[in-house]
Amino acid sequence: EYHQLTGSHLQVYGDIGELYGAITHGIKLHRNYAKGSDGRLGNHLVEVKTITPFKNCDTVEINLDRNFSQVLIVKINADFEVRGKLIDRKALPKGNLRGNRLRIDWAQFGGA
């Protein structure tokens, strides 16, 4: 509704991605701004990356120096529908590196 009224976006998409992970996957979130990862799922540390509806491409950049064993990529589309993909770190591609940062595309991990 805010977007329809103002044409602007609130800066809440990262929080929405983390809440999606907590609700749909049971991720126990760390306190805000904790270093290393965003939450825990069993014995796994989880990094959450969110693709916002106003982004030009469906890619995220993951800092491989962070301490995580799974990454949850959350996509919020232009209709504000939310979907996510939970990926083991060992399943991440080895290429597409920029230093310690890996760029991956939503479509790389099944489905559109």
What does this entry look like structurally?
The protein has about 110 residues and is an alpha+beta fold. The model has no long low-confidence stretch (mean pLDDT about 90). It has helices spanning about 1-5, 15-25; strands spanning about 30, 40, 45-50, 60-65, 70-75, 80-90, 95-100, 100-105. Strands 1-2-3-5-6 form a five-stranded mixed beta sheet, covered by helices on one side.
Produce the secondary structure layout.
Elements: H1 2-6, H2 13-25, E1 28-29, E2 39-41, E3 44-51, E4 59-63, E5 70-76, E6 82-88, E7 97-98, E8 101-105
Parallel strand pairs: 3-5
Antiparallel strand pairs: 1-2, 2-3, 4-8, 5-6, 7-8
Features:
single chain, 112 residues, alpha+beta, Trna Endonuclease, Chain: A, domain 1, 5-stranded mixed beta sheet, 2 helices, 35% strand, globular
Q: Estimate the strand proportion.
A: 25-35%
* Poorly predicted sequence stretches spanning 5 or more consecutive residues: none
In whole angstroms, how far apart are the ends? Answer: 26 Å
Shape, per Cα inertia axes: globular
| Order of helix and strand elements from N to C terminus | HHEEEEEEEE
Structural class: alpha+beta
Count every helix, treating DSSP H or I runs of 4 or more residues as helices: 2
CATH topology: Trna Endonuclease, Chain: A, domain 1
User: What is the topology, as strand order, of the major beta sheet?
Assistant: 1-2-3-5-6
User: Quick one: CATH class?
Assistant: Alpha Beta
Number of beta-strand segments: 8
Q: Which percent bin holds the helix content?
A: 10-25%
What does the radius of gyration come to? 14 Å
Mean pLDDT equals 89
Number of separate structural domains: 1
Largest sheet properties? 5 strands, mixed
CATH architecture group name = 3-Layer(aba) Sandwich
